Amino acid sequence: MQKNERGAALLEFALVFGIFVFVLYGLIAFGMMLSMKQTITHAATEGARAAIGVTDDPATPNDEREDAAKARVASALSGWNAAQVAHTSVVVSFPNTCPTSCIKVHITYDYKNQPLVPPAPGLGLVTPDTLSSDAIVALS
């Protein structure tokens, strides 16, 4: 090894290590986002299914099907911490675009204001502002 090449391996390692850590961070961040998206999709599906078979009593001010759906969504998201639940909105509706009676559960998570991992420089350009999912189930 020549004298003027001393330290070249250390420099190469430093350059490659920085890129490796950034790629590893990206894999972890996107993996956690994908896991959260799957949890949201599961919760929306479970909420919509919970309304099947529940009859609405017109004498009560609120819809029992909507209450059952929201309760099941809360149960499906029970593993989340309070800050994550606070940044989640659940909307239950009964769209009239279905050929029969149906329920739609829409869940949105504000990922921009409550990310799972701290954002890395430049990675915020490719991460979504919100994670959301819809589930529609025919009731009759």
Q: In what order do the strands lie side by side in the largest sheet?
A: 1-2-3
Shape: rod-shaped
| Rg value | 23 Å
Kindly estimate the percentage of residues that lie in beta strands according to DSSP: 15-25%
Total count of domains: 1
Q: How many beta-strand elements?
A: 3
Largest beta-sheet details: 3 strands, antiparallel
**Uncertain runs with pLDDT below 50, 5 residues or more?**
none
Counted by DSSP, the helix tally is 3
Series of secondary-structure elements, N-terminal to C-terminal: HHHEEE
Helix content: 40-55%
Question: Could you give the distance between the termini?
Answer: 80 Å
Structural class: alpha+beta
Task: Report mean pLDDT, rounded to a whole number.
Answer: 89
